[in-house]
Amino acid sequence: MRVRLKFLGAARSVTGSKYLLEVDNKKVLIDCGLFQGRKELRLRNWDRLPIDPKSIDLIVITHAHIDHIGYLPRLVKDGFHGRILCTHASEDLMRIMLKDAAKLQEEEALFAFKRGYSRHEKPEPLFTEEDAGRVFEFVDSVRFEKEIKLFPGLSLTYYNAGHILGSAIAELVLTGKEIKKKIVFSGDLGRYDDAIMQPPKAITEADILLVESTYGDRLNPIDRVEEDLAKIINEANERNGVIVVPAFAVGRTQLMIYYFHMLMEKKAIPTLPIYIDSPMAISVTDLYERHGGQHKIKVERIDGKLISIFDDPHVHFCNSSESSKALNEIKNPCIIISASGMATGGRVLHHLYHRLPRENDTILFAGFQAEGSRGRRILEGEPFVKIFGEEVPVKCQVRVINGLSAHADQSELLQWLGNFKDSPKMTFITHGEMEAATTFSKKIEEMGWKTIIPEYLESFELFNGI
Ligand SMILES: [Zn+2]
């Protein structure tokens, strides 16, 4: 049996997750993400894939974040026609995420065309809503913890990763004439003490392990979140300012609603209106109610309706662009939660455009900001950021809450690795910027494990070669 693994993304970076596993003549892609952040990374989305999409037999998706699924529409457009495996909740989320991503691509291309800030005469989107819709012709969603036969000699089992709704650790088992090997892809791992997600499932053995390292060099305790959040909101309220929270519509938005709701109930912060300015967040919130068993939020059925904290009367969902635009006129303290989380696109750009120049308002980042993203630039104190082709001055208060991350921190990653009875033959450190990956790799090697931090497009012969 010949087994090769090639890193087509999330190698020494946190986006573009794509790992090509070749088992004899079968080609399996684990995750199919979009590159985000730095321009040189984003440009990779336009490069020809080093493999013909038509030749890929199957795609295994760990979870529905765009940096893990966002390249699917392009791959289908370029001729992929195999099977796409994911969990049930991931399929529901993917429908929302890909549609939104396609819309952003189309809007961005149109905007660049109108404002004339693209190098291209007629900028084209990477993919359209129609391309995104076609992805679902190939999707086959499955349950957690059920072994799925992919091909003779290759099976897949998903385990809860506790990172976002539907997120999974993918365990692939290869069975040859005389050998049986297990390759585990951690996907993105969640936290042990998250307020709304379950902890990641323990895996006890693997021959080859790929583990994420987003926070491989950082400790990110959750225990101060409530206190810090209350302080930021109270200070913003005293300044009579508006608080804008760029947050992913999936997971982070629901977590923020949970915390604000809880702090208001406890009277640790004043009761303020919370505006969810993302049509996507409404649909996603419904999914939290539909897939109730996979997280900790209490969902009750009252008079045939599913009721949870998301039905709090202070939480307002902005469905229309009019209700979104009306938020620009608000002068009194309120909380606006809007996507995208790294301020790379979406309605939050309109809020940043209006709020960044106002000294009394606050931008509160609620998670990881990838290198090169607009969010990172604001966080690092750049005096101006470009939005819609214009240089916008950053005069508002800029705050960050780190404990809210949906990613395990270094201690939690090590805790998860601690479940393995024996060290894997090789551990590939993926999905982390170089510094995080290097620090984490040293930590793992201290346990006597062998590690590799693969480079973009690097490939390895498994079992015989490693
Ligand atoms: Zn993720």
Commentary on this structure:
There is one protein chain. With 466 residues, this protein is α/β, with parallel strands linked by helices. 28% of the residues lie in helices and 22% in strands. The protein has helices at 39-44, 66-69, 72-77, 88-115, 129-134, 225-238, 252-265, 279-290, 321-326, 348-355, 374-379, 410-417, 434-445; strands spanning 3-7, 19-23, 26-30, 58-60, 83-87, 139-142, 148-151, 154-160, 168-175, 180-185, 208-212, 243-246, 274-277, 300-302, 305-307, 315-317, 335-338, 362-365, 384-387, 390-393, 397-400, 426-430, 451-452, 459-461. The strands form 5 sheets. It has a 7-stranded mixed sheet. A 7-stranded mixed sheet has the order 7-8-9-10-11-22-23, covered by helices on one side. Strand 8 and strand 9 form a beta hairpin. The chain starts with a strand and ends in a 5-residue tail after the last strand. Residues 63, 65, 68, 163, 188 line the site of zinc ion (ZN). Residues 63, 65, 68, 163, 188 line the site of zinc ion.
